[in-house]
Amino acid sequence: MKTHPLHAFxxxxxxxxxxxxxxxxxxxxxxxxxxxxxxxIESQITDxxxxxxxxxxxxxxxxxxxxxVDAVTALSEVLAQDARPVVYRAGSFVHLDxxxxxxxVLSDKTDASYPGMDRVLTILAGRARTFPxxxxxxxxxxxxxxxxxxxxxxxxxxxxxxxxxxxxGVFAVAPPELTRMRRTIVRNSMIAIAIVIGVSxxxxxxxxxxxxxxxxxxxxxxxxxxxTLSVLGSAIAKRDSDTDAHNYRVTLYATRIGEAMxxxxxxxxxxxxxxxxxxxxxxxxxxxxxxxxxxxDEQEFAVMKTHVGKGADIVxxxxxxxxxNEVVAHxxxxxxGGGYPRGLxxxxxxVTARIFAVSDVFDALTSHRPYKTxxxxxxxxxxxxxxxxxxxxxxxxxxxxxxxxxxxxRYAGHEGRDLQEELxxxxxxxxxAGMKTLQY
Length: 440
What we know:
Elements: H1 6-67, H2 71-81, E1 87-88, E2 91-99, E3 105-110, H3 117-125, E4 138-144, E5 147-157, E6 163-173, H4 175-241, H5 245-260, H6 265-276, H7 287-290, H8 298-305, H9 307-316, H10 325-328, H11 351-366, H12 377-386, H13 394-401, H14 404-411, H15 417-431
Antiparallel strand pairs: 1-2, 2-3, 2-6, 4-5, 5-6
Helix pairs in contact: 1-2, 1-4, 5-6, 5-11, 5-15, 6-11, 11-12
């Protein structure tokens, strides 16, 4: 999975994803709106067809009552009155017929002037007649040669309410009305799409604001974590030697070696944390051993070696610090074996710990201690070369040798704020938070 700076995520990835999501949602809503409205309009057209048949039946009922004739005779008279007996703004009936229960046609009326009427009658003739029950009807919308029609069938009852015949009509939707309906569908669908897009546009500044708040909180949290790292690492360094310069120097040596070896950013963060906290376990070592000016005896050295396990236990208690355990728990292992606490060899030792081992010994040899004077650069490099392949990883020695002279001039024996400022720049590079640096 690719990672992106949060700044790029917000201004590129988020915009694209929000636009794609908005477009997909807009299309979905638009299609749904189109489908719903079309169904509603077709239902309205169908209702007009039903009303037309009912209107025809009511006219026949009026004739029945006034003339005292049967329903079929009355309906035939109604059909004979006009060429188009039922007309609405939305359209008109272009064909009406009446048939009995046997399907025999008792009376019919056709608007012969309607365009394409022969085609309509051909399709109608191919449809089986139906016989709906009293107070029920059947209706279906049909497209014929680009025109919209409704085929409607309804029952006809006599004065006593008995169904004696059935009326079937073909309702033709007027082209202007059909155009108006289509425009209404398109307009309403576009309105729905515009609403979705508008809401998405309004969401962008809200998401941007929340993301910036998240970046601010992350920055504050990171600063607090780095402060904890500094305080915890400096606490043991000052207890051990009255100065925390050693921690700054070994961390800078280690990060420069890591960069020379092309370590990825994730391992560089491990290296920084582990280097600064490498001796944190010495907090659990008695002063009589930790501060002893002379050489430790065998029993005292056994106690001193426990600082590795104690340090690992300390950093494992913090979710943010625990990745530094690679260095804390393994910085006293030796490349050829024989180190402690586990006696690991070669690549079984994490590369960050192998790098730190070189930086730690280099700083120890080139630094002043109450019990020794610092070695020269040449003497120190001679010691490292002597232990190549036994104590130290040869590939780390090779990477360090190429930059050792420069680093010696910059850091060896140095103390003070310049080290802190340079390490702060390293932290800024590998740990910095905020909109431009946070990864997702």
